[in-house]
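Give me C-alpha cells for this 601-residue protein.
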Amino acid sequence: MAESMQGMKRTCRCAELDESMIGQQLTLMGWCHKQRDLGGLVFITLRDRSGEVQLLIDETSPEDAQAKAALVRSEFVIAATGTLRKREAANPNMKTGQVELLVTELRILSESLTPPFYIEEEIDTKESLRLKYRYLDLRRPDMQSKMMLRHRITKLTRDYYDESGFLEIETPMLIRSTPEGARDYLVPSRVFPGQFFALPQSPQLYKQLLMLSGYDRYIQIARCFRDEDLRADRQPEFTQIDLEMAFVDMEDVIAVNEGYLKRLFSEIMGIEIELPLPRLSWHEAMERYGSDKPDLRIGMELKNISDLVADSSFKVFSDAIENGGSVRMIAVPDGSSLSRKEIDSLGEFVKTYRAKGLAWLTVEEKPRGSILKFVDTDLVQKMAERAGAQVGDLLLIVADKNEVVFDALGQLRCEVAKRMNMYSDEDYKLLWVTDFPLLEHDEEAGRYVAKHHPFTSPKDEDMELLETDPAAVRAKAYDIILNGTELGGGSIRIHDQKLQQKMFSLLGFSEEQAWNRFGYLLEAFKYGVPPHGGLAFGLDRLVMLLTHSESIRDVIAFPKVQNSSCLMTDAPGDVDQSQLEELGLLLDPKIQQEMEGSEQD
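Here you go.
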C-alpha cells in the first residue's frame, strides 16, 4: 500500500551528494533502479533525474525499514532518510560512488508493475514499444539527459536574444488558413458553422505585422503545425526559434545569429567556433556538393566532366549532354578497395534518386570499371586529374538532367562517407547558403512557386529580371547548415506593397485571390512598413544534432509516429456524435462505415 510523504521533506537530488556531506542526515526520494537483498543486508540503487546513489539497509536500520527494503522492487517510488557515509567499496562508475546513505526510515510511496523494458541507457527495444510507454522511456537516463539539454538550449536562447534587444511575444494558435506549402491542420468553429481556423505552419505573417507595429526585434519559441508526410527529422507539430528584425539587411540578421551559434556551441558543447562562418551561394553549393545543404565534413566534391566525354561513344553520356543535362562524378579516396557487390549497391542507391544508373572506374595502372570499353586509359587519367584523384581512388559517375545528377551525386557522397566512416559525429561544420533562386517552376501546376515563401524579397540587382526572366531572379534568402542538415533559414522580406502584389502575380494569384488570402497583411502594409527580415531555427533538429540522436522523436517528450498518430494516447480518436453536431459536421458515410466496421472487428 502506498505511504504518505507527510513529515518527510526531500533534502536534495540523488547525484547532488558528495563527500562534503558525510555525516549529515538526509532525505532522498526517487525510483528504485535495482534492489539487492543479501539477507540482512539490502542495497538499493535510488534514481532520480540527476543520477543515482546507493542506499544501505543493514541490521542497524530499524526493523520497519528492513521489512520494507525486502519488499522494494524495480521502479517502486520510495523515500529514504538516513545518514550519509563513505562507501567501503567505492564505485568509480557512479558520480556518487564514494558515498552511500545508511537508511533509518524507508517509505514505499508507490509500487510498480514490472516495466515492459529496462529503464536504462541505450536499450535494444523496438521504438514502437518505447513510444507506447513513453512515460517510462522518459525515465531512462539518456532520454532525461536529452530533455535537460533541450531545456538548457531553450534557456540560453532566451537569454541571448533578450540580451541582444529582442522581445519575446506570443502569436495566435488559431489563425486564418494561408497557403504556405504544406497542408494546414484545420479547426472547425462552433460559433461560425462551416468555417475553420488553421493551426499555424509558422508565425510568419504575425511576426511581419509585429515589425510594422514597431517591435523591431521579436523572438518566440514557437509551436508550428504542418500536415505533411513524416521522416526522421519531421513531426506534425514542432518547435521553432522564430525571430524577426526591422531596419536590417541580410548581414545584420546573419551577424546576430552567428553570435547566437557561437555562444550556443561554447556554453552547451564546449566548442569554440570561428566567425564569420563560411558562406556558399546556392549555385556554388549545387555545383560543388550537389546539395543546398552540403556536409562540409566530407570532401568528394562533384566535378563536371561533360566536356571530357562529349564525344564519347557511350550513349548514356552523349544523350544526357545532348538533352541539356551533364555528366558529373565524385572521387572516393581508396575506393578501389570496395568490392563489386558494394559498388553495385551504390548503383541501386542512386536509382532511388531517379538516376538511371551509376558508372564507375578505378584509378589504377590498369583501370577497372563498368564503362572501360567506352573509355581509354588516357581519358581515365584526364578524369582523375579533374577530380584530383590518386591511385587507388574510385570514380563514381552519373549522367542525366542536372537536377537528377545533383540529387543523386549529392546523396551518394554522403552515403559513401557514412559507409566508409569518413567523418566524426564530434566534428561540427556550419555554413550559410545564400542567393537562393526566388522562384522555381512547378511543371505539374504549370506556374512558378516560391522557393522559400511569397514574402521573400528579390535581390536588388535582379529586380529587372522579374519581368523578363523570373527563374533567374535570386532571393535575399539564407539558410544555416550544420553537417548536411538545415538548422534554419530566413530572408529579407518584401516591404513594398507594389512589389508584394507583383510577387503574388508571378505566383499565379490574382489581385482578388491575394486579398482574399492575405488581405489583412496587405491592408496593414498601407500604414508604413519598415524594411525587415528574420530567420527561424528548428529547435528539435538542433537538439537532435547536438545529442547525436537518429530522430527528432528522441528529443521531443511526446512525439508522433510516421502516420502522425500517438501510440501512447491512441490519438487521433473518435469524438461523440454530439460534438460533431455542435460543430455542424457530418462524417463521410464511407468513413462512418469503415469506423463502424473496425469497431466490430
